[in-house]
Design brief:
The protein is an alpha/beta fold. Helices cover 34% and strands 20% of the residues.
């Protein structure tokens, strides 16, 4: 824990924007260095220009690879492209546009020359491809749209990110990202920038294939079809929305104005240095709206001793607005797992009567088992999938999954009539749902969580990291259940040892072990020499510590 975690950043904590942007153009990556190659994680390629991991050559090569990939898939409709507020997002967006224009790809750029949240890009792709119509979304055939979002999500200000969304509107699967990364690295090795056809930015903006699209109005005007904004307005719920300097900044103001809500944009500042942010647990500036340290300013405003809370509910979003943080006067910042359970209980227990009766609940396997208990109480099928929102895409498209959520504060759900809304995470949507819950039940989400605890039991949940070499991480990702020889965990019999998710049998890239009242999951980090241990106990905090300690021993024994 950093000594200044939760305190406002100092000058020495801030990036030099000119240096970060200059390095984007000045540094050339070494395609033979694994740290400088294109590598897609669960949310695209990420890195810093200062490390030669996110530079002009990377983006030109990735965009060219996307051009070739979409052509190979027969995707010949428009490509919707958005960007967030990170310093590297605008230059990367410009590079991408230059390559797309040279390839004669029809590109839809923001009509306001401004920022676009990830969910707004997903929604626009789906609307173009048939969402909201009787026929539903098409994912094959001519004229289909896809998209690019230029964002490293909640990562520090020095980072950049670039992700591709195919015609289904959600994150690309590993087949697509693997193909794109391999082709991009091939381009880097074959000459990089010099091997990619581009036009000037001026010509790209003036090209007949570059068109303006009003992402904001499209998104905001469609919200009544997924959120009961009339109930929020009628109840007079006081909402405080903190964009954390991200892409949702103009969206929140438009939402409040369009629907006449008692909504205050708590902090409308946009600063690529994020000088107004409080430091995260490790002393870095990180726009993680699920972190009490990154959200310290909003939390203190809501829970100041002796002062009445200025809002009935306050919310935060990360830089591209695909994550949510929920702050209540009585509990402060809610644990993301707690809010996911509350959202599920509300939506399925009368909150969405227009949803299919068969609509299942989706969760990642490292999300709280409280969700399992809520699903059982509701009598709904629970579909448990590996980490990554891409696994929820098919179910959300078909309506077979009504809600999909991740432990990292990312989720989306269906329209009120049961149609698909977005197939990428939507932090704005989940934040607005908190206001709907207050409006229609008269209770805060944290009060609802306490009711769930009274019914299903209290749990203690945490994630810790353990050191691991690259070889050990590879071995962890390839484990089989038979390699785990232990029969007990923290004093309880092991009930399941999983290396594939029960919801879809997809490999989890690690290990999950469960007992009657606890579980842990171990997964290798994609960027650091550690593996992550997620664990939960319905017994006590001490029992959680025992689970974590034995989890390390169990994993180390399997890796020996």
């Amino acid at each position: 824990m950093h000594a200044r975690a939760g305190q406002v950043a100092h000058e020495e904590d801030l990036i030099d924007v000119d240096r970060v942007v200059g390095a984007y153009y000045d540094l050339t990556p070494d395609a033979d260095d694994p740290a400088q190659r294109v590598a897609f994680g669960t949310s695209g390629h990420r890195g810093s220009s200062l490390d030669a991991a996110f530079n002009e050559a990377h983006i030109a090569a990735i965009t060219q690879a996307i051009v070739e990939y979409r052509a190979s898939q027969g995707t010949d409709g428009p490509l919707f492209i958005g960007r967030d507020t990170h310093a590297l997002s605008l230059p990367a967006w410009q590079t991408a546009l230059e390559v797309l224009a040279a390839a004669d790809v029809t590109v839809m750029i923001d009509a306001r020359d401004s920022f676009t949240p990830t969910p707004a890009v997903s929604q626009s792709i789906l609307l173009h491809n048939g969402a909201g119509t009787a026929e539903g979304v098409r994912t094959t055939g001519p004229g289909l749209a896809d998209g690019i979002v230029v964002t490293p999500s909640h990562n520090p200000p020095r980072d950049g990110g670039f992700k591709y969304n195919p015609p289904h509107g959600g994150p690309a699967d590993s087949d697509a990202t693997g193909w794109i990364a391999d082709r991009a690295n091939e381009i880097l090795r074959g000459g990089g920038l010099s091997s990619v056809k581009r036009v000037s930015l001026e010509n790209a903006l003036a090209a007949t294939t570059t068109r303006r699209h009003d992402f904001l109005t499209t998104y905001v005007d469609d919200l009544p079809n997924v959120i009961d904004v009339d109930a929020i307005r009628a109840s007079g719920v006081r909402i405080g929305a903190d964009p954390l300097g991200g892409a949702s900044v103009e969206y929140w103001g438009a939402i409040g104005e369009r629907f006449d809500l008692d909504l205050t944009v708590v902090n409308p500042q946009v600063d690529p240095r994020w000088a107004f942010m409080t430091l995260d647990w490790d002393g870095k500036i990180r726009m993680d709206c699920s972190s009490p340290y990154a959200m310290a300013s909003l939390v203190s405003r809501m829970t100041a001793d002796g002062a009445a809370a200025p809002f009935d509910v306050a919310t935060g979003n990360d830089a591209d607005s695909d994550r949510h943080g929920i702050v209540t006067p009585d509990a402060g910042l809610m644990n993301p797992n707690h809010y996911l359970a509350v959202a599920i209980q509300y939506l399925y227990d009368g909150g969405r009567p227009g949803w299919p009766k068969y609509a299942a609940i989706g969760k990642t396997l490292v999300s709280s088992a409280l969700i399992d208990r809520v699903a059982a109480g509701l009598g709904r099928e629970l579909i448990e999938v590996p980490v990554g929102f891409k696994w929820f895409v098919p179910g959300l498209l078909s309506g077979e999954v009504g809600f999909g959520g991740e432990e990292s504060a990312g989720a989306s759900f269906l329209r009120r009539d049961g149609g698909v809304w977005s197939t990428d995470k939507d932090g704005i949507l989940l934040a607005l749902l908190a206001s709907e819950i207050v409006a229609k039940t008269g209770k805060s989400p944290s009060e609802h969580h306490r009711a769930l605890v009274a019914e299903h039991g209290e749990s203690w949940y945490a994630r810790v990291d353990a050191a691991a070499t690259r070889e050990q991480k590879a071995k962890l990702g390839a484990l089989s259940p038979e390699q785990v020889t232990s029969t007990t965990l923290a004093g309880q019999d092991i009930t399941a040892t999983l290396t594939a998710a029960p919801g879809n049998r997809a490999k989890i890239g690690g290990l999950k072990v469960t007992t009657a009242d606890a579980w842990f999951a171990a997964r290798p980090s994609g960027t650091e020499d550690v593996y992550k241990i997620y664990a939960e106990s319905f017994v006590s905090a001490q029992h959680l510590a025992e689970v974590q300690a034995e989890a390390k021993d169990l994993v180390n024994e399997a890796l020996a």
